[in-house]
Amino acid sequence: MWRQVLLYFRTHSYNADNCQAKETLQTEDEEDIRTAQWIFKPMGSERMEMRKRQMSTTQETPGTAQAQHSTGNRGSNACCFCWCCCCSCSCLTVRNQDEERARRTSHELQAEGIPNCEESPAPTLEEVNAWAQSFDKLMLTPAGRNAFREFLRTEFSEENMLFWMACEELKQESNKSVIEEKARLIYEDYISILSPKEVSLDSRVREVINRNMLEPSQHTFDDAQLQIYTLMHRDSYPRFMNSAIYKDLLRSLSEKSIEA
Hints:
There is one protein chain. By secondary structure, the chain is mainly alpha-helical. It has helices at residues 2-58, 62-76, 90-112, 125-131, 135-140, 142-154, 158-171, 176-191, 203-212, 222-241, 244-259. Helix 6 (142-154) packs antiparallel against helix 7 (158-171) and helix 7 packs across helix 10 (222-241).
């Protein structure tokens, strides 16, 4: 009998322990689930927030997209020091200003175009033949200057002829205010190192011009004009006589004279 009683108590104690263990495990599982939900809930919220941001980005206005695109372009041109490619880089700002200034200068030069040539009648065969005799005879006639100027344009040295002609016009002025204004324009266009049409002059002549500009006169640029005239005579004139421009003109006038 005692054995049965002892067996009964052992059985009930085992069942009670099992129930308590199951309850403990169930409680621990519930706590783990709640803990996991608490841990992973922010991640889910962050993902939802990221989705909302992506949707708002895709639905942005065209103006905003264009602004972001231009900002991206600025970043792609950032300098090597600006590793983040931000648009606030100081050297990038300077570069953009330089590019804008270069584009504006190029546009202004294109708008100005090539200056008009002197009005002159068509040259005769005798005149064209005389051009080959001396540089002075070439420069005496408007037709000769126009032909020579066309050749200089092909060599990118037309500014030499333009400067020489501007000096000739200055010599014909008598009004003091007009002389001062024309002298200033000639200096800015052909003497200043900042001008795209600067002519090649030595330091001695430049010093003379700088002194003369204190009181401009009709002869402010005489030394410079002579130096450019000599440069064209010795350097450009021989090539002009052998150029297609001169030979084609001479041949066409010769053919016309034969036909006549």
